[in-house]
Amino acid sequence: MRSIVLSIALLAACSQVFAASNVGQCVYPKSKPGKGGRLEFIKPIYISPTPAPSEKQVLTTFDAFTIKAEANGFVQLATVPGVEDAPIKTIGWVKLSDFKILDLRNCN
Question: Mean of the per-residue pLDDT values for the chain?
């Protein structure tokens, strides 16, 4: 009986740890409708080459991305493979709080 309870507890703990990771999720920049109906970023989204505040570039495209890695509250973004079969390109590290998570079916 103890082994059954222990195995169920272990299984539950493992599934929660796996679910806590955002790797593989689809994300889209947080935005709002602007003047003339165009989308605008809620605030500038900075991309850095490392998972820490460092030299930065500003994200300029409204595209969906996939999360390739996670560290220190930052996520590494990669392009979503499209119809053209272009190779997946790593974009850089951004704060996860600047993005909203999309359903995988909407990641295109």
Answer: 83
